[in-house]
Amino acid sequence: MVAACRAAAARKGSITGPTSGAEANSAFPAFRLPEDWDVVVQESGGILMAEAAMLAFREGAEDRIVRAAARMQPTPAGIRMTTSDEEVMAKQVMVAAGPWISGFVPDLARHLKVTRQAVGWFRPAKPETVRYGEFPIFLVERGRGLVYGFPDFEGRGVKAAQHDQGPEVGPDEWGPPATDEELKMVSATLTELLPGAAGPILDRDICLYTNTLKADMRADDGNEFIIDRLPEDPRIIIASPCSGHGAKFASAIGAMVADLALDPQRTPPDAFRLDRFSGFASEGPGCSR
């Protein structure tokens, strides 16, 4: 993983900052990493304020947003979208339904797994070492799993969570809130490797990952996006960037989906295509390839 991180950081410019655990501990006193660990620092990293971003994306479209359950029915005349009190016919539909995507496209269900991911905010033992601007976003991996986290950028503690997949759940199974047991590994990792950030849990939340399983038509380890036209009906565009890290790419994904809608000759990147799964690899007349 270190080699991949270093290569990704290098593509964004020269690599600077600590390169070992000892150097990281000296630069950022909240850490207590093994001194011989390899460390990669990417200076261009940042924090996306999700709520503010969603409000900005919705700005100017509020009068066109219908907050209601909907059903989708392809017909020869167009795609019929029906709610309890409205019916709309569309030439094309872009479906970005998060963990509910398989409800619109049932054939996707066998290629997806929705998991429950626990998130916690921890009262730091040494608040002065985890202040925003002085302490980095971090990603650490030991035998027990992969943990990521943020400096205290909201004044509510250090936000941290396990990135490895949690238990499989249904798309409506958000609650109850994250338990101490679910956050036990995160707490243990902070105590061992980031003692300045460790402390009691102040707040907790749950998010859902919608993970793709491994593809069977090309090399693909899973946990990837799906952005493509539905082969049997190219009027329906699927946008499922739901693997736990899609929100930060919302602008790029929106542009990609818009390009697919406006240009029938445009194809998505191979990594996101549906035909990496054998169930969607049809070359029949309904396929847009």
Q: How much is the average pLDDT?
A: 90
Termini separation comes to: 34 Å
Largest beta sheet: strand ordering:
6-7-8-5-9
**How many β strands by DSSP?**
11
The SSE string, one letter per element, is: HHHEEEEHEEEEHEEEH
> Tell me, what's the shape?
elongated
Q: What is the CATH H-level superfamily of the domain at 51-58 and 69-113 and 216-280?
A: FAD/NAD(P)-binding domain
CATH fold-level name of the domain at 51-58 and 69-113 and 216-280: FAD/NAD(P)-binding domain
The residue ranges in which pLDDT falls below 50 over 5 or more consecutive positions are 283-289
Top-tier CATH class of the domain at 51-58 and 69-113 and 216-280:
Alpha Beta
The rounded Rg comes to 22 Å
Total of helices: 6
Alpha-beta content class = alpha+beta
Helix content: 10-25%
Description:
By secondary structure, the protein is α+β, with helices and mostly antiparallel strands. Among the domains are: 45 residues, no CATH class; 118 residues, FAD/NAD(P)-binding domain. The protein is 18% helix and 24% strand. The chain is built from 6 helices and 11 strands. The strands form 3 sheets. It has a 5-stranded antiparallel sheet with strand order 6-7-8-5-9, covered by helices on one side. It has a 3-stranded antiparallel sheet with strand order 1-2-3, with no helix packed on it. Strands 4-11-10 form a 3-stranded mixed sheet, covered by helices on one side. The two termini are 34 Å apart.
